[in-house]
Amino acid sequence: MAKAIPFVTLIIFFLVSTAFAQYQTGQQGQQYQQQQIQQQEARQCRIQRITPSQPTQRIQSEGGVTEMWNEFDDQFQCAGVAALRNIIQPNCLSLPNFSPSPRLVYIQQGQGLIGMSIPGCAETYHSGQQSVRGGSIRTRQGEQSDQHQKVHRVRQGDIVAVPAGVAHWCYNDGNEELVAVSVNDLNNNANQLEQKLRSFYLAGGHQQIYSSVQSPQQQQQQKETFQNVFRAFDENLMAEAFNLPVEVIRRMQQEDQRGFIVRVTGEGMRMIRPEEDEEYEQRYQSRRENGMEELYCNLKIRQYLDNPKEADIYTEQAGRINHANGQKLQILNYMDMSAEKGNLYPNAMHAPHWTMNAHSVFYVTRGDAHVEIVGSNGQTVYYDHVKQGELFVVPQQFVSSMRAGNNGFEYVAFKTSSQPMKSPLVGYTSAFKAMPIQVLANSFQISTQEAQSLKYNREHQTMLLPLRNVRSS
Amino acid sequence: MAKAIPFVTLIIFFLVSTAFAQYQTGQQGQQYQQQQIQQQEARQCRIQRITPSQPTQRIQSEGGVTEMWNEFDDQFQCAGVAALRNIIQPNCLSLPNFSPSPRLVYIQQGQGLIGMSIPGCAETYHSGQQSVRGGSIRTRQGEQSDQHQKVHRVRQGDIVAVPAGVAHWCYNDGNEELVAVSVNDLNNNANQLEQKLRSFYLAGGHQQIYSSVQSPQQQQQQKETFQNVFRAFDENLMAEAFNLPVEVIRRMQQEDQRGFIVRVTGEGMRMIRPEEDEEYEQRYQSRRENGMEELYCNLKIRQYLDNPKEADIYTEQAGRINHANGQKLQILNYMDMSAEKGNLYPNAMHAPHWTMNAHSVFYVTRGDAHVEIVGSNGQTVYYDHVKQGELFVVPQQFVSSMRAGNNGFEYVAFKTSSQPMKSPLVGYTSAFKAMPIQVLANSFQISTQEAQSLKYNREHQTMLLPLRNVRSS
Amino acid sequence: MAKAIPFVTLIIFFLVSTAFAQYQTGQQGQQYQQQQIQQQEARQCRIQRITPSQPTQRIQSEGGVTEMWNEFDDQFQCAGVAALRNIIQPNCLSLPNFSPSPRLVYIQQGQGLIGMSIPGCAETYHSGQQSVRGGSIRTRQGEQSDQHQKVHRVRQGDIVAVPAGVAHWCYNDGNEELVAVSVNDLNNNANQLEQKLRSFYLAGGHQQIYSSVQSPQQQQQQKETFQNVFRAFDENLMAEAFNLPVEVIRRMQQEDQRGFIVRVTGEGMRMIRPEEDEEYEQRYQSRRENGMEELYCNLKIRQYLDNPKEADIYTEQAGRINHANGQKLQILNYMDMSAEKGNLYPNAMHAPHWTMNAHSVFYVTRGDAHVEIVGSNGQTVYYDHVKQGELFVVPQQFVSSMRAGNNGFEYVAFKTSSQPMKSPLVGYTSAFKAMPIQVLANSFQISTQEAQSLKYNREHQTMLLPLRNVRSS
């Protein structure tokens, strides 16, 4: 027996070594693998449950806060989107940045100015006192004259389109916080990098001191998402490129504690802009120089989405829906995204429907609602209340219905198609109304009278349904 | 030595515990991983062998049968398609359903009526006796009047286009079984959900009693594929939405034993339709209200693919090919799919060729053929007979050739592009004919005379080649 | 204690068996898994370091050499491209082949003739002495007359577009080696097979004797990449298809030692071609027979990219850039690729910039440069010299800058979009110049004077910057 022991020991050594090796690489690999499996399932929209949620991370900056939803949440993986909310204090500036995926921004509160640097487009805003000769700008008595690309006024209720790769900034020139909710379409064709939110900043950076509620892991994640790409460059190379003293570059690359939203020094930023009233009416005609300019430079990038007079769907007893799609805001065709704003009166219902060609990301701007979503597995994946500030995804083809609470319900929905099509079960444009009565009667084993009621009881409503007792005609 | 034992035991315990833990999670993970690897290889079209196949699963319904090919078969994973065959008994109705991927249907036998609910399109079929005032429909003496969207007559030989997300139904109003073969393009841009066949039914459901030949696993798979999304909704919510008594909804949601194809009660369904002859000639002009209507509402959704007079390729001694592509059937441009029907005379050959921009899914409608397919690995992946009722995939760029058997060969091929381009090696449009003789002579080390024969021996034929001894001119 | 031993032995046996089983399947699986993880990371462009590289593999043929870059290199996985360099000896022919992904070719040296077989397009080049009656070609006194599709003259500096699936060949009719650098866009929509380079040859094949420097693994990889798809076909089937004696087919399918580039027998290939001068001026108008013909048959497939007179960007002190994009070479719109050629004078700088919508594959054609690339992680992923013959990728949105060496720097860059847009940090079209001075001042905490310098110091330059001391005006 004792002779067996050395053999046993040998085997044990072999086992220990292989097991350990496997354990180490395996453990890591398995964890990664589990995550990958889960992520793959989510990205394929095999979803058991939708969970409306609030932002889970926040980045505190000098001039405001950036709040991010957990982009690894199943519902966001399914829709291939990432959502965040920026809160910019008055007289503060969200620093210039760009992203590999297109972004739609809804201005929930406040007002501000947004600028986008579109390469190849002319600087069409000029200050009056400048005299440009041979392209050089002369200053008078220390006052800078300037010229730059168009600056866009944005106000509460606006939807703003930011194409992939375009550097943009936002300045809060109002008296209250500017709150902006953004959704990036990571699965968009424009994004040739990974399915993950990335913002490349030209200035600013992470604050050294994080709020104590965050784990180091979360901090790491934020660092991955937001990056200053200007600082990494060799200072001499940059000095040469900009034809500036290296000390200036060094200051530009310096790390500071301001984060990604900064307070503007002095009494606020002066900027060349036409009178507001003019601007809202103007039809600016710039010189057209080439195809790209025609294509991009003069495209409208914002639309007021909260104008009752321009509602696309309106029911006196139930509310209204406004669309911003490729037909209204042409830039959306290039971005393949769109949005809708819904205002439901108390207890009104959004008809059960499915969106045929897009995922929808709902953000509750006011009030609350009871929502039911039925998934691709034929099971209810959500059946509960949603309330202000929450965000949830209704994947393509999932059937959903919403019933406003006692104080009404307002939402903005971001969609992953520039021409989304909704197919409702109820109302004037419903799938059932399009079918012969006998098809319905035989499908559901109901009488032809009942089938007729099924088709026509709501025939005067579209999408938005008032309470039953407010039954029309 | 004895002292070593406790140490050995400790180590063993450690090993046992870690091994077990790994074994459990690992086993599962590894199995999944093996499947994933295999699936990934198949999806990348690294295929060793193509295997023409019959459907492997069947769902029995009251009014017919749904037969499904195994969508996890390598060839279907490569092409990103799923295939099924519906057999609908006379006076039976395939219940309304929609799918996240576009579908082409070939009517192999029989005739029927197909309806599609396209949201936003008008109900353009009205029964004569109705008087619509303020939108309400009045009935006379208990007879329902009705209005609904266009109903399409389909007959043997038709190809029918069903866009993603459009609810549709099919009624067999003929005297024989209606047999319809469908291919869904799961990889299509329209599908933002997973690469898996899914049909969302508005009515009907799985029968409780399955045929005994099916494993529980297969039953589970079928359940995943076909889902009733109407039943999951809260009955009160639905009653409210439809403005119907809750008892009606309850009946509509009731599980029954009818499956997905149901027998129509009474002597058949009456439906508003123009005279058949009229319809086949009509050029219906509806009011155009908006872009979407123009885009979708009036598009033709079917084409007769078996008309010898409209053959695109015809060789007196060899047969004919009819195409349904984006140029002939405009809706296919939106779906990025197309089809072709081939009728080969006995022993005629389909020239060796590759399809430059699409996978092709062949379904044998009649006869048999000898098929050779050469894969991306330069090896023959198929070299054998195919017979009626079998389905096989020829992936993009794989070179294939078919020789009809003694009774001829008929097929329908579904393609994953709306403008598929075939590049044949032989005949009027062949790759070799486009090359200078000296390029061929030097490529193959043959004489210029032989190269000339290579180019011109078949110059009067295109795609379809008669037997050698029927050599033309 | 001794009693414990059998128990221990049992456990050990269990452990050994499970561990072995796991070891075997696991080892393989884990290796594959590690590779997959790494590949996934690379494909998502989570790149730590870019490494400019030379080709790592070569295939020796009778008439030249095919050199391939390692397509599994992270940078190529990220961009989804594969690169190779063909060197064709004078009077040698690169054999007809096609690929599932579109390809751009830059002619680095020499001249040649390229033919493409586009199915459905007419043979528009006819030899004078032929008399075509009923389509048959008569020969006079043993001299072959011929007709074939257009043959394209290509010369050093040309960029050539080869669409997916189009069979093409190239003949070096000059006196020096023809060197052609090709990039295939594997991620292109046109490619429905795997993300891997594949060339399907109609003739030729691997040489039996490989150079001794290659591992069997490398040889295997090459075999996977380049395949003869003609040889696998049944010889009788082919004889029947081509209506040729089976002995001819047998010779055509015969394996030989010539590889994929072959020496032309005799004193060179005669080919029908217009006078060169004519051709370079001609505007060929063929009969238009259908949409496809209009679409493909008459499209220009080459553009001279090295013409100083047609430079798109030119700075007297710094150099020039020529573009070949969808606006200039329409076929690129169908292929969604483009190219640019840059010629930088000694010590000139290419401004720091990011490409908004495409990956860029740089190939150094002459000279050297110092390159800095900053990645999506905010870190420098490359900061070193690149020299002639090296290839490197700048992924979408990564910010890069290049400074030419003392002998200047010339490159050709292949891009994965037909309309690539570059956003520079410096110069006339820069992101900073588009922003108000105060935005810059506040972003970087610099004075308004410094911000003004930042905007305007380089305002007269676009993309290409001369040395600082050659400061303009």
From TrEMBL, chains A, B, C:
Q: MF terms per GO, please?
A: nutrient reservoir activity
Q: Where is the signal peptide?
A: 1-21
Domain of life according to the entry: Eukaryota
Domain Cupin type-1: start-end pairs: 48-250, 303-452
Q: Which residue stretches does the UniProt record annotate as biased composition, category Polar residues?
A: 126-139
Where are the stretches annotated Disordered?
125-153
**Residue ranges under compositional bias (Basic and acidic residues)?**
140-149
Q: Which family does it belong to?
A: Belongs to the 11S seed storage protein (globulins) family.
Q: Which InterPro entries match?
A: 11S_seedstore_pln, Cupin_1, RmlC-like_jellyroll, RmlC_Cupin_sf, Seed_Storage-Functional
Q: Which PANTHER family match?
A: 11S GLOBULIN SEED STORAGE PROTEIN 2-LIKE, OS03G0336100 PROTEIN-RELATED
> What name does the UniProt record give this protein?
Cupin type-1 domain-containing protein
Record flagged with keyword Signal: yes
Keywords assigned by UniProt, alphabetized: Disulfide bond, Seed storage protein, Signal, Storage protein
Q: Which Pfam families match?
A: Cupin_1 (PF00190)
Which species is this UniProt entry from? Papaver somniferum
